[in-house]
Amino acid sequence: QTPKPSETKVRGSIQSLSETPVRNTVHRDDNGQPITKQQFLEPFYIPNVAGYSVATLLAGQRVDSHQHETMHEMFYIMEGTGIFTIDGKETPVQPGTFIHVAPHEIHSIVVPLESSAKRMQMLVTGVVVE
């Protein structure tokens, strides 16, 4: 269990993905089903780090276009395939692909319904800069 930032001493942790609960993100697909994640580090447990998690998008799901004012967002594709669009440029991604999205870059993610992969899993973290 990840300690809370309100504790007087921040401590490290060792966690297993298989034992980390699945929870919903704020992103939902066209049918209202949420994109899910398994959160290793709670947002801002480490100052300026907007969490560290494994996100899962199922075939047919997407994260709609959005941007962040002050956050660098980083993704590492672990499983499956999808398409990242950053400032209008579509790029297919597969396991081993690293993506860095800088503040103000408009980005979206989709796992096409016709994808041979049933899902795409990726490590996600964000770092907020002033």
The number of helices is 0
Name the poorly predicted regions: none
End-to-end gap: 30 Å
Helix content: under 10%
Beta strand %: over 45%
Q: Rough shape?
A: globular
Structural class: mainly beta
Order of helices and strands: EEEEEEEEEE
How would you sum up this structure, described in words?
The chain is mainly beta and 130 residues long. The protein has strands spanning 22-28, 34-41, 49-58, 62-66, 71-79, 82-86, 89-93, 98-101, 107-110, 119-128. The protein has a 6-stranded antiparallel sheet with strand order 1-2-3-10-5-8, with no helix packed on it. Strands 4-9-6-7 form a 4-stranded antiparallel sheet, with no helix packed on it. It is globular and about 50 Å long. The two termini are 30 Å apart.
Structure keywords:
four-stranded antiparallel β-sheet, globular, mainly beta, 130 residues, 0% helix, six-stranded antiparallel β-sheet
How would the blueprint of this fold be written?
Elements: E1 22-28, E2 34-41, E3 49-58, E4 62-66, E5 71-79, E6 82-86, E7 89-93, E8 98-101, E9 107-110, E10 119-128
Antiparallel strand pairs: 1-2, 2-3, 3-10, 4-9, 5-8, 5-10, 6-7, 6-9
Summarize the structure in short:
With 130 residues, the chain is mainly β. The chain has strands at 22-28, 34-41, 49-58, 62-66, 71-79, 82-86, 89-93, 98-101, 107-110, 119-128.
